[in-house]
Write a structure and sequence with these properties.
By secondary structure, the protein is α+β, with helices and mostly antiparallel strands. It folds into four domains: about 80 residues, no CATH class; about 100 residues, PAS domain (Beta-Lactamase); about 70 residues, Helix Hairpins; about 160 residues, Histidine kinase-like ATPase, C-terminal domain (Heat Shock Protein 90, 2-Layer Sandwich). Helices cover about 50% and strands about 20% of the residues. The protein has 13 helices and twelve strands. The strands form three sheets. The protein has a five-stranded antiparallel β-sheet with strand order 2-1-5-4-3, sandwiched between helices. Strand 3 and strand 4 form a beta hairpin. The protein is elongated.
């Protein structure tokens, strides 16, 4: 539109430029005018020479302002010209986090490899606003240009995946508000996800403990009140209370077990464990539970010992958990197959599989079965005294042993859990 700032006529622009340059020398010009006026009034200087001298001083002030402005422009321009220099590129590439270099117009003049990988839309020569459509980031860039001081904001993106970054915008030279800017992005995604997992874990653990505790308190109040003299009710309630107490005890035991495993996650076990004898021992330990649900545990083991490097107690917990789950949730299949075999896969030498022939699980649930407290059917799981932590414990132990856990299941075809371990 005519009359807007960007489309002012040349005379208006010229007048604005002169006005801006003279404003920077207002104090000097005012003092000069006072001195010349005093000399003229006192008769020491004629009016004509005084006016001429003032005009010369004004012209000099304008030229000096222009010279300083040109020098600043050359300084900033020189920085832009050296953006592609090896020194600045090496500086950006040496940073582990994404780093973007912007010129005076906020055009991307360089991006390191980390920035190229995490933000493929960042193209050299394009304005940063085309790639990072974040009002907070763009506002920080403008603030740095005005103040010349670093600014830090948070960038939250949900496409293509949810990510968080701490964005720091810094002028290349302190105090240069219209020069080159360095934009550094530090990932906060893992921290945010851990915070979410921690919050969910605390909420779930509190819920799982509160449910049996509330039940216990209710039965205790009943026994102390209306059922105080009812022997039959007392016996029934005490049985329920014992089951709830056992459930809480098992949950706390699993929580402590998971905590211990996580503390040692980075330490690889070095003891030798014979899986053949271990699986036989587990079958004997679960024989009573298998008999109660009328399920046969069938072992398919090699004749010779098969030794792996690991922690015997932890591997016992892994396979006991898997076979116990198969007995609980696949009981209508009447059989659980446990197979141990040598394999020749990259990084793995031993395969242990536990297969039940129960109802199976929908494909949508399979990837989440190892999450803490995740249950396909929460009510059924609680009735079977499940804590929702068994497969999470299994996953952490297998990871500590540098192994691989795979779960395969289809509705009506049972569930097969495979564990690959290195020798």
């Amino acid at each position: 539109m005519v009359g807007d700032g960007p489309n002012r006529s040349p005379p208006d622009s010229l007048m604005a430029m002169w006005r801006a340059r003279l404003e920077g020398r207002a104090l000097l010009l005012g003092a000069t005018a006072v001195v010349l006026f005093g000399l003229t009034v006192s008769g020491q200087l004629a009016a004509g020479p005084a006016v001429f001298a003032f005009a010369v001083i004004v012209a000099a002030a304008v030229l000096l302002s222009a010279g300083e402005k040109d020098e600043q422009d050359q300084q900033a321009g020189g920085l832009v010209e050296t953006i592609d220099s090896s020194t600045l590129q090496l500086f950006a590439e040496a940073l582990p986090d994404p780093c973007i270099v912007l010129d005076r117009r906020s055009l991307v003049v360089h991006r390191n490899k980390a920035a190229s990988h995490q933000f493929p839309g960042l193209l050299v020569g394009n304005p940063i606003s085309l790639s990072l459509r974040s009002p907070a980031v763009l506002s920080a860039i403008e603030t740095v240009r005005v103040n010349g001081a670093p600014e830090t904001v948070e960038l939250h993106q949900t496409v293509p995946t949810e990510t968080w970054h701490r964005v720091t915008v810094t002028p290349l030279l302190a105090g240069v508000g219209d020069g080159v800017l360095i934009v550094n992005l530090q990932s906060l995604t893992d921290e945010k996800r851990l915070d979410t997992l921690r919050s969910d874990f605390v909420a779930n653990a509190s819920h799982e403990l509160r449910t049996p505790l509330t039940s216990l308190l209710g039965f205790i109040d009943t026994l102390m009140g209306p059922a105080a003299r009812d022997a039959e009710a007392r016996e029934r309630f005490l049985g329920i209370m014992r089951n709830q107490a056992v459930r809480m005890s098992k949950l706390i035991e699993d929580l402590l077990s998971l905590s211990r495993i996580e503390m040692r996650q980075h330490m690889r076990p070095t003891s030798n464990v014979d899986l053949v004898s271990l699986l036989r021992e587990i079958r004997e330990g679960l024989a009573t539970a298998a008999k109660e649900v009328e399920v046969e545990i069938v072992l398919d083991l090699p004749a010779e010992p098969m030794v792996v490097s690991g922690d015997r107690d932890e591997l016992y917990e892994v396979f006991e958990n898997l076979i116990d789950n198969a007995l609980k949730y696949g009981a209508n299949g009447k059989k659980v197959d446990v197979t141990l075999a040598a394999v020749t896969r990259p990084a793995y030498d031993v395969l242990v599989s536990v297969t039940d022939y129960g109802p199976g699980v929908e494909a949508a649930h399979v990837p989440r079965l190892t999450e803490r407290f995740y249950r396909v059917d929460a009510e059924s799981s609680r009735k079977k005294k499940g804590t929702g932590l068994g497969l999470a414990i299994v996953k952490h132990i297998v990871t500590r042993h540098r192994g691989l856990l795979t779960i395969k299941s289809r509705p009506g075809h049972g569930t097969r859990v495979e564990i690959l371990l290195p020798r």
